[in-house]
Amino acid sequence: MNSGGFRDYERSKTKPKNGLRIALLGDSFTEAFHVKLEDTYGAIMEQKLQQCSVLKDQKVEVMNFGSQGYGTAQELMTLRHHVWDYAPDLVILAFYAANDLRNNYRPLDHDYLRPYFVYKNGELELDMSFQTMKPWERGRYVFSMVDILPIWLVRNSRILQLIRKVDMDAKPRQFLDEKGKSLISFYREPELNSEWDEAWKVTEGLIKLMRDEVYERGAGFMVIAISDSHQVHPNLEHREKFKNNHNLSDLYYPDRRIEAFGKQENIPVYILSGPLGNEAQKTGKCLYGFDNAEPCGGHWNIEGHKFVGKIMSNYLCDKYKLERSRGVGE
User: Fold this and answer.
1) Residues 78, 115: contact at Cβ < 8 Å?
2) pLDDT at 328
3) What is the mean pLDDT of the chain?
4) Among 26, 95, 9, 5, residue whose Cα is nearest residue 60
5) Three-class DSSP category at 278
6) Which has the higher per-residue pLDDT, 142 or 217?
7) In the chain, helix, strand, coil percent, each to 5?
8) Nearest CA to 265 among 215, 313, 228?
9) pLDDT tens across 122-149, in order?
10) CA 226, CA 52: separation in Å to the nearest integer?
11) Which residue would you say has higher pLDDT here, 137 or 329?
12) DSSP structure class, residue 14
């Protein structure tokens, strides 16, 4: 961790002369505690972009502002309260549909102790009500309704203690059941006005807010759509079996939606599921998972970070080459 509180190298708030700064916003995929700092995709992007022919005379910095557990709302607030201090030229939002959608919408999330944005009169407004929540309001999985009662009453009633124990013993099962459903639901196109439809609307509104604030500062903005491990499993039979077992029409609805949204809103979107899926199939290697954890699942391993760092640096290098050629032509 650096002195700013982020998992990154130490960065000066004074931008280097002739420097190029890229800020990464994201969750645990970007913070990437699962691998060494030098093996994160951000560090690899920085290293490879420095070798890009049109950037060789610039000091390239790819700054990591990722934080595990964050949704788009907290990433927007990170942009506002931290990122601008470092004057980035490009802001990249790493969007992970598998949990960012529910993290952005309280009715779907299990963690009430976070800020949310809600629509009021057609505008997104910041909801900081978690700061004044009563203990029993902070999450249905960590408190029992018995906790509303006075402590002295519960301490002197074996019946209330038993009711609370039965209630709390059931909470982990409820949590796992609901979490399991949410880990599948994001693949599906939501029904109109459903909770998932609302979560998508809030999320897209947050991304537009981020885009507007970045463009107002004169910086560039883009979205990386992080794939889920089942979308890019090296075994095609596994992908098909997973889809059929959960009655999914396909595994790529979130990618298509965020890509179409980007085209509509003038936001460049890079979809990772295609390149990662092709690489995994070609090499037979899992780009997710670790030997001491879920095989081929969870987060990117070293190979996954290496590949993402390579393809994103190639993409950006080509982008800067094109911009430079247009500038010369004009």
Assistant:
1) no
2) 53
3) 93
4) 9
5) helix
6) 217
7) 50, 15, 35
8) 215
9) 999 999 999 998 876 777 777 788 888 8
10) 24
11) 137
12) S
CB contact burial 53-81 (16+ within 10 A = b; e otherwise): ebbeebebbbbbbbbeebbbbbbbebbee
What pLDDT score was predicted for residue 222?
Answer: 98
Query: Exposed, middle or buried: residue 113 (CB in 10 Å: 0-12, 13-18, 19+)?
Result: exposed
- Measured between alpha carbons, how far is 84 from 27 in angstroms, rounded to an integer? 18
What contacts 213, CB < 8 A, 6 or more positions away?
76, 79, 80
| Band of residue 300 on the pLDDT scale cut at 50, 70, 90 | very high
Kindly indicate the confidence band of residue 329, based on its pLDDT and cuts at 50, 70 and 90.
Answer: very low
Any residues with CB less than 8 A from the CB of 150 and at least 6 apart, and which?
none
Residues 6+ away with beta carbon under 8 Å from 178: 110
What does the pLDDT average to over 10-29?
96
**Residues 203, 104 contacting (CB under 8 angstroms):** yes
| Distance (Å) of CA 289 to CA 8, 105, 129, 156 | 22, 28, 36, 49
User: DSSP letter at 130?
Assistant: G
Q: Which of 32, 21, 19, 31 is nearest to 85 (CA)?
A: 21
19-103+195-329 CATH: 3.40.50.1110
**Strand-pair partners of 116:** 127
Delimit the domains of the chain by residue range: 19-103+195-329
Contacts 24+ apart (CB under 8 A), 296-299: 296/229, 296/233, 296/234, 296/238, 297/229, 297/230, 298/34, 298/229, 299/28, 299/29, 299/32, 299/34
What does 39-64 look like in DSSP terms, one character per residue?
A: GSHHHHHHHHHTTSTTTTTSEEEEEE
Task: Give me the half-sphere count of Cα atoms (radius 13 Å) on the Cβ side of residue 48.
Answer: 22
CB 65, CB 11: distance < 8 Å: no
State how far Cα 22 lies from the chain centre: 17
